[in-house]
Amino acid sequence: MPFALIPPNLDAWPPVWWVGCHGGAGVSTLARLVGFGLDFGKGWPAVTPAMPVANVVLVCRASASGTWAATGAIEQWRRRSGMSGLMTVLGVVAVAASPRRPPRIATERLHLLRGWAPQVWRVGWVDALLAADDPRDVGAPPDVEALRTEIWQKVHTPPEGKR
User: Fold this and answer.
1) The dihedral formed by the CA atoms of 73, 109, 123 and 2, expressed in degrees to the nearest 10
2) Is 4 exposed, middle or buried (0-12, 13-18, 19+ CB in 10 A)?
């Protein structure tokens, strides 16, 4: 994943940076359905010591190529190759690539990711989103509502010892 610069016109620091592991991961749709954070596209936020910690949620498709890209992104984050220590990856969201079950290789990679990433969430297929101009017109399905609640709690609950 290439590094990207933070847009200079942010009014407030976003609670979450939604980052795609590859093109077509569903970042824009997911960010709009969740309703908070910044869709950062396909690059790591470039943060400096003067900035708050960037809470990143990686997004991939639950497909062979999508989970491969997520594996690479998590490996890059774990090695901190060229990135700031002021970035926390909250987890990986695997968005269904179709209404069918994901291929076995994708399921196996997601299982591996559970051991490397702080969290792995799965979001199911929503056929109605294909015909929606704005995903908010369809509404957030229960798995996205659960994701929203869990991530909101993660970014707004002080760490142990700092309460």
Assistant:
1) 10
2) middle
What is the DSSP-derived secondary structure letter of residue 160? T
Token pair listed for 118:
């702080």
Closest to 53 in 3D by CA, of 27, 14, 92: 14
> How far is it, in rounded angstroms, from Cα 24 to Cα 42?
10
Q: Which amino acid is at 145?
A: E
| Cβ within 8 Å of residue 88, ≥6 positions away | 53, 54, 55, 56
**Full-model pTM:** 0.87
| Tokens at 70, concatenated | 């997520």
Q: How far apart are CA 14 and CA 152, in angstroms?
A: 12
Q: Which two tokens stand for residue 147?
A: 């994701």
The count of residues in the chain is 163
Structure confidence by residue, pLDDT tens digits, 30-87? 999 999 998 888 888 877 777 888 899 999 999 999 999 999 999 989 888 667 677 8
Written as one letter, the residue type at 128 is A
- Cα-flanking dihedrals φ and ψ of residue 123, to 5°? -120, 130
